[in-house]
Specification:
heterodimer, A: 381 residues, alpha/beta, D-Maltodextrin-Binding Protein, domain 2, 2 domains, 10-stranded mixed sheet, disordered N terminus, B: 550 residues, mainly alpha, MetI-like fold, 71% helix
């Protein structure tokens, strides 16, 4: 029998080997990540007017790229998606995709944005070819900033509300000012985003945390760009703070509290959630005269994707008319200017509504850095 | 041999912990890690909010642990030592609340106690004309109440075997000397339960320190920030796992301080040994008319612990949306669409099946490993047992999400990654401290004279372990298996990063509903889960005569 000391040394060595292996793998991953980060194409977001025949041109471009990518994607045979979207939505979308492109098996993993980022970046740093595409709003820019995204410029860019040359914008996060119809009369509603900071709404507003990369911070970025007025922005932010309302870290939980009547105003809510609740007969509505803030939801190809052609094909298909119809069928917003649905900006806010796109380059690339520079000194000052 | 087993278990537990610590001394945002340095720690110690948040954490975790452990101990004493009527019912009632997933409890209590939209405040206004909100879920008291209730089962399950295995001669001596039952209880019974009480309190306190759902759902709306929020913010806002792990190390220090006091308080463990070589029967005390009061106590706990929140969840799962008026209109507005939605969720059934299989397996492995390590510490003269004690408890100090990051790093590139085994190991690491502390508490209560008798007769360690220790621990093994199974089957924090495409885990599916704001569907899923678990526990209790105590 081994002596006690020998047993201890053996056990210690075993633990040491496991630990050293983990550290070594992670260190190698760090180096890879740094190298990959330098190759990333900087993001540019542009909003272009839709031209005559753009729809037809996009359809043609999609047919061509689809014909090119499908045989290669079929050879790859798989598609692994990491997404923040509801599993029920992902099921509908992947089923439609697999029906359209037989021979490709699509699977998904669902998590929150921080979980997706943590998992994706840990895998990236570990050199893992573990998934193909990220389908989310806040996660892709952060992963891209870490070098984890393979640049891909969609061929259907001309029909999009918002375009990023490194990632396909497949849907939009459209923010609306929602309110509880039992708590507020239409005459008492704020007339603009800015008016929510009016002291008369003290105690009535459910406020998203402006210091997290969530809907309110996207809105702040959009408003700051539109106003281009530092004093006005500061006044607005200070006004929100003066409401002395608690901030929430979960938009969905906050929205639920507005429905329950705990608060009267949801600052902000997501349009597809609001429309869904309105259809259910929930005492919720939104202010149609306040221009919606729009933020891209992207399908971003992973830098070490084992099935890159399947990933690109999926991104293109999501933007195509068929893909957009599938997205619309689960109640999510279209990213195309030429696609009509009940959650499209025109249908929800009226013809001629000019949305407020989030276009700040720094915010889209590094929301935390943008918040540290533009919001933190005022909010925490 | 037990030392080797404990060393392997210790290595499995300490490795992710070391990876997390290593991550804390590397800097930079994800993808831009540069080098080993102390930047993360400099940021942590330069954080001006750290002390107020730590203060909030201690008040919240301490308050909830005290409430939960005391109430759990009281229930255990009532069940084990008194002649409270309805024995079987009284034994079962304290168990059911443990079955409800924590998030479900939070949702139910928010709906009950929210100041403006809460059901209880609404009733007070409607029926008694009290306009000013009396209850407030979004307050420190509300947080302590909800998490305190979640701490009761651990207190109950830890204390029950102590009271059940009590040598009555100690109390009888007191009675002979003229002591009254209440006096005897406070002077003899409760002091002897101190190690188990401290074990349960420490575990509940540590759970409170790292708990996230209650502070986020109830604390954030009241601007009450606890320390663990910083850990999650570092990941959720900054995506900086290095900083998150550095913040976690503060929790480790706090936990180490807590454990130091615990070890000091229980260092003369033989004092508390109540299972000796002498034979005896546990004596049930006749508490006279007080037995109705004790029955009422158990019943009230059953009401607030599960029945009321469960009823709220059932109603919420069957109404179109929640507000006070719609709630009060039930059942005229009842619908079953949420149940249909949940049952047709792509991952619900497979996830539920996976969680049942994995939780059962992990419970067995974890409980056995916990007993082996506790046996090594308290029944062998192996060197470094203090180190084992620390290793066995240290995962408790880490927020589960941070710990699972360490596990993901370890599993990357191995066949385990993206398998259910990885998730199983994650659950093992997360719940080992519960198995270990439970086994420790029980072994401390077994007097060494039993082992010594075997040693004198030439027995080897395996004889002592399998023929003496394990059979005596049998009553608490059922409870430990039950507790870890229940904790594992509702785990979200560890599971969320370790699940993978095509390998669903039930609680994650359920939590997804909650995260996406679909409270009604989450409630429907929670009700289905609860019904299955309640049936399982009742069958185990009545059909298989299983005892549930730790």
């Amino acid at each position: 029998m081994l002596s006690r000391a020998t047993k201890f040394i053996a056990a210690g060595l075993a633990a040491g080997v496991v630990f050293a292996g983990a550290v070594g793998a992670a260190e190698k991953a760090m180096k890879d990540a740094k190298a990959a980060a330098q190759k990333v194409v900087p993001s540019q977001v542009t909003k272009q007017a839709i031209g005559t025949g753009a729809t037809a041109a996009a359809a043609k471009a999609f047919a061509k790229v689809s014909a090119e990518l499908y045989p290669k994607a079929k050879q790859e045979g798989n598609l692994i998606i990491y997404s923040v979207w509801d599993v029920e939505h992902l099921k509908v979308i992947t089923d439609a995709f697999m029906k359209r492109y037989p021979g490709i098996k699509a699977t998904y993993w669902q998590g929150s944005n921080p979980e997706i980022i943590t998992r994706a970046m840990t895998e990236f740093q570990g050199g893992q070819s573990s998934f193909d595409i990220v389908l989310s709003d806040n996660a892709p820019p952060v992963i891209r900033a870490g070098g984890g995204i393979m640049s891909y410029n969609t061929v259907q860019r001309d029909v999009l509300y918002m375009h990023d040359p490194t990632m396909a914008t497949v849907s939009l996060q459209i923010q609306a000012l929602a309110y509880n119809t039992k708590k507020l009369k239409p005459a008492d509603l704020p007339k603009s985003w800015e008016e929510v900071a009016n002291p008369k709404y003290k105690g009535m507003v459910a406020l998203d945390d402006p210091m997290r990369a969530g809907p309110l911070s996207s809105m702040l970025s959009g408003l700051k760009t539109q106003w281009n007025d530092e004093a006005r922005f500061t006044r607005f932010l200070k006004g929100l703070k003066a409401l002395n309302v608690p901030v929430h870290k979960s938009t969905s939980a906050m929205f639920r509290l507005v429905i329950s009547g705990e608060y009267a105003i949801c600052m902000p809510a997501l349009l597809h959630d609001v429309i869904e609740e309105v259809h259910k007969g929930t005492p919720i509505s939104y202010v149609k005269t306040i221009p919606p803030v729009v933020f891209p939801r992207q399908a971003a190809v992973y830098a070490k994707a084992p099935d890159p052609n399947a990933a690109k094909l999926f991104a293109e298909w999501m933007i195509s008319e068929e893909g957009q119809k599938t997205i619309d069928s689960v109640g999510r917003e279209s990213s195309r200017k030429d696609f009509k649905s009940h959650t499209s900006i025109e249908a929800a806010f009226g013809k001629g509504t000019k949305p407020l796109p989030v276009t700040d380059k720094l915010f889209l690339e590094d929301p935390k850095k943008w918040l540290d520079i533009n919001v933190k000194p005022i909010w925490e000052g | 041999m037990p030392v080797v087993g404990s060393a392997i278990v210790g290595a499995a537990i300490i490795t992710p912990v070391l990876v997390v610590l290593w991550r804390s001394v590397t800097t930079g945002r994800l993808g831009f890690t540069v080098a080993f340095n102390l930047t993360n720690y400099l940021r942590v110690f330069g954080d001006k909010d750290i002390l107020p948040m730590l203060g909030n954490s201690v008040v919240y975790a301490g308050g909830a642990a005290l409430l939960g452990t005391c109430l759990g101990a009281l229930l255990a004493w009532i069940v084990a030592r008194t002649n409270t009527p309805g024995k079987t019912l009284v034994e079962l009632m304290p168990l059911y609340p443990i079955l409800m997933p924590p998030v479900m409890k939070n949702i139910a209590w928010i709906l009950l106690l929210a100041p403006r939209s809460g059901i209880l405040n609404g009733m007070l206004q409607q029926f008694f004309g009290i306009g000013t909100p009396v209850f407030n879920a979004f307050s420190m008291a509300g947080m302590i109440w909800v998490f305190g209730l979640a701490c009761v089962p651990l207190g109950y399950l830890f204390l029950l075997p102590v009271f059940l295995s009590f040598d009555p001669s100690l109390e009888e001596s007191a009675y002979i000397a003229g002591s009254k039952p209440l006096h005897t209880m406070f002077k003899i019974t409760f002091p002897l339960a101190v190690p188990a009480f401290f074990s349960a309190f420490v575990l509940n306190f540590l759970r409170g320190l790292r708990s996230f759902e209650t502070p986020v759902l109830q604390g954030t709306p009241a601007n009450i920030n606890v320390f663990v929020s910083r850990v999650y913010d570092s990941m959720a806002l900054e995506f900086n796992t290095g900083l998150a792990t550095a913040y976690s190390v503060i929790l480790v220090v706090l936990s180490a301080i807590t454990l130091y006091f615990y070890v000091r308080a229980t260092r003369f463990s033989e004092r508390y040994a109540t299972i000796t070589g002498k034979g005896y029967r546990v004596k049930v005390i006749d508490i006279g008319p007080w037995k109705y009061a004790t029955f009422l106590t158990v019943f009230i706990y059953f009401l607030v612990g599960i029945l009321i929140p469960f009823v709220v969840l059932i109603v919420v799962s069957m109404i179109p949306y929640f507000d006070y008026d719609t709630f009060m209109s039930f059942p005229s507005n009842a619908v079953l669409t949420n149940y249909y939605t949940v049952m047709h969720h792509p991952s619900f059934v497979t996830g539920f099946y996976n969680s049942l299989v994995l939780s059962s397996t992990i419970a067995v492995i974890t409980v056995f490993a916990g007993i082996v390590m506790a046996f090594t510490i308290y029944r062998t003269r192996a060197p470094g047992t203090k180190l084992f004690e620390f290793i066995g408890t240290v995962p408790l100090a880490f927020p589960p999400l941070v710990l699972s990051v360490g596990l993901v790093i370890i599993f990357l590139g191995t066949p385990l990654y993206n398998s259910l085994w990885a998730l199983g190991i994650g659950l093992f690491v997360a719940y080992f401290p519960y198995a270990f502390r439970n086994a420790s508490g029980s072994i401390v209560n077994i007097h060494k004279e039993l082992d010594e008798a075997a040693w004198v007769h030439g027995a080897r360690w395996r004889h002592v372990f399998f023929k003496i220790t394990l059979p005596i621990l049998k009553p608490s093994v059922g409870g430990a298996l039950f507790y870890i199974f229940i904790e594992a089957i509702r785990n979200v924090d560890v599971a969320v990063l370790l699940t993978s495409p095509g390998k669903e885990y039930g609680p994650v599916t359920l939590f997804e509903y909650f995260r996406l704001g679909q409270w009604a569907e989450a409630a429907a899923g929670g009700v289905i889960y609860l019904i299955v678990l309640i049936v399982a526990v009742s069958v185990a209790k009545f059909a298989f005569k299983m005892k549930f105590s730790l």
